[in-house]
Amino acid sequence: MEDVEAQRKIKSLGNSIVTEIKTGKNPRFVTASRTKSNITYDTKEGYLKLGRAKEERNFINVAQSKRFMQTIAIAAKCDKFIKENLHTTIRGLFYQLKYSLGEDVDESIFSEQAESNPLIEDLEAALEVKREELNLNATRRGVLAGNMKILDRFGGEKVEIDCTKQGRSGWSIPSDVDNDIEFVNVKAKYVLIVEKDAVWSRLNEDGFWKKENCILITPQGQATRGTRRLIRKLADMNLPIYVFTDSDAWGWYIYWTIKTGSINLAYIGKDVATPEARFIGVTMSDIDKYEFLKKLTINATEMDIKRAQEMMGYEWIKKYKEWVQELEIMIKSKKKIEQDALQGPRLTFVGDYLREKIKNNAVMP
Amino acid sequence: MEDVEAQRKIKSLGNSIVTEIKTGKNPRFVTASRTKSNITYDTKEGYLKLGRAKEERNFINVAQSKRFMQTIAIAAKCDKFIKENLHTTIRGLFYQLKYSLGEDVDESIFSEQAESNPLIEDLEAALEVKREELNLNATRRGVLAGNMKILDRFGGEKVEIDCTKQGRSGWSIPSDVDNDIEFVNVKAKYVLIVEKDAVWSRLNEDGFWKKENCILITPQGQATRGTRRLIRKLADMNLPIYVFTDSDAWGWYIYWTIKTGSINLAYIGKDVATPEARFIGVTMSDIDKYEFLKKLTINATEMDIKRAQEMMGYEWIKKYKEWVQELEIMIKSKKKIEQDALQGPRLTFVGDYLREKIKNNAVMP
């Protein structure tokens, strides 16, 4: 049970503070620095992570004592949630902190949620736990269908969910895919991630995951923590991960976030990045092969073009000549292609496109 | 099968045009006018609907012939989708129209999706069918748990989904809850709609729907067409419908959209409005009863206050003195309350709050 691990870590933090107090030292809280200057791209591993810089917060320090107290209050609340075996969100936590800090403290030391949110990240980084292990749920989004089963122990219930029997709906990916949940009988050849729910539904209706024996996921836009973590776990089962998005700024962002992680979550980079992921399309070069796409491009926005130019400068992108070429085509042509455009000739074409790309391994790094 | 009904209506539209051509008349397409001036609030029925104004579009009319052609092209594509028994979205439809209009027409008469979208609504209004019956899916969002089963016939699959066995995830509400889908064994006492997914998850973890024998739905923000239609269908089964939102502009908007429908969907108002719905909270007056809430209010935004002032003028709101009073409290105090605040004293308090309100029928119209 990872929960127990999180509790042990909170207790250990508490003990070290008590020891400092008893030995007449200034109680301190040390966490990894999450400032931009401490975020690096790990070339060897292929994801964004934190460097070695630390941040220290002391109790006896006018500028730091309030935040020190707030951080400890958050740790105490999370410890309580774990003991109660109940989950909430960072907003629920904020309201508990605002309501009361405990039996002895009547003063509200939190006035806005903007105060508590970064301190939760501090705690995650300091204890090397994810907030999900502190019983704090993040926003969930994302849906899955395919040959696998879920064992879900939740709220006093134990259920088995068969992801081949979810009809048009699919299985909703929860915030936490690590604790009290298991993935069993994962009998698929690969994982296909489709940016848009609408295109996922099209493929689901065609039985794509059944015919191809794959796991079909849509993050429904940008992938949440839960969906990114699930993709990481599926990659750990040695399943190839393919990502299919629009050929535009937003689509690329979805791909690179899944692959290398993001600045915001660099502090848990290893757990949510999937450097093994490959990009299946839509590519600007697809126009050479699928002539009809020329007719179905739409005008790139200024944001698309600005983003493409920025991406040419990222070390983890510019090292791939295929990506440099892609970005150059978009900047020059000022056009973009949506994944929905592949429904142009006929609704089922999108599946054929994917099948051919995967069969020929016509993917980008 | 409603699909067949939609096809029959498309055919009948086609036949009337053919007859007009054969008899030397100017082919015409008549639909209900969806302009604001033709939208009325039906005092007796309690929802927003279209009035009697019609809009006519003629083929032999320089200003109208392109849109006439486009509308017919859309009808033809939808007829094809129904025959193929395949679904897409209004975006997928757009790309098919852009790709080709048929064997004989090579000219692309659509350049932007903004052109085809309103014409689909024209067709829905003219034929008195919902786009879901034309095999066009809308955005889906919303999750459900509770004592009911779904029979889903989709993509050559037939599945039974038990909404008591969906664990932390719940059952995802699809775009279309009318065709090839059935709700059976609906054995619940009432339906509770919770604005936020996070609060829904809290209640789901507490087994609220099991203890109360209710159906627990979250629209995950503003309710989609599918979720609104599902609520309407559950109300038709004589289940009381309770809505629980934040006490702010966005929360009220969610409630009133579920209850009276919206201007955008007035053309299918009857099918998506649930005038029987009752508002459970959070109310500004809750502060009188739950003293701690005073500490947990947050500042109302300008938008919240402006919206409250506007709402005082709506005939379907100002007729209720309870609502006028609520809005006055918010305008005067410039405060609002989130539903998450009910987790302040303890995480499980939100369930107790709801139980008490429902037991005492302490709801607003």
Structure description:
The structure is a homodimer of 365-residue chains. The first copy, chain A, is α/β, with parallel strands linked by helices and 365 residues long. Chain A has two domains: 2-137, Orthogonal Bundle (Arc Repressor Mutant, subunit A); 143-359, Dna Topoisomerase Vi A Subunit, Chain: A, domain 2. Chain A is built from 15 helices and 17 strands. The first copy, chain A, has helices at residues 2-22, 65-84, 90-99, 113-127, 197-205, 208-212, 225-236, 249-260, 269-272, 286-289, 293-296, 302-311, 315-318, 321-333, 349-359, and strands at 28-32, 39-42, 47-50, 54-58, 88-89, 136-137, 143-146, 149-154, 157-162, 171-172, 181-184, 190-194, 214-218, 241-244, 278-281, 298-299, 335-336. Chain A has a six-stranded mixed sheet with strand order 10-7-13-12-14-15, sandwiched between helices. Chain A has a three-stranded antiparallel sheet with strand order 9-8-11, with no helix packed on it. In chain A, strand 8 (149-154) and strand 9 (157-162) form a beta hairpin. The model of chain A has no long low-confidence stretch (mean pLDDT 95). Chains A and B meet through strand 5, helix 3, strand 8, strand 9 and strand 10 of A and strand 5, helix 3, strand 8, strand 9 and strand 10 of B.
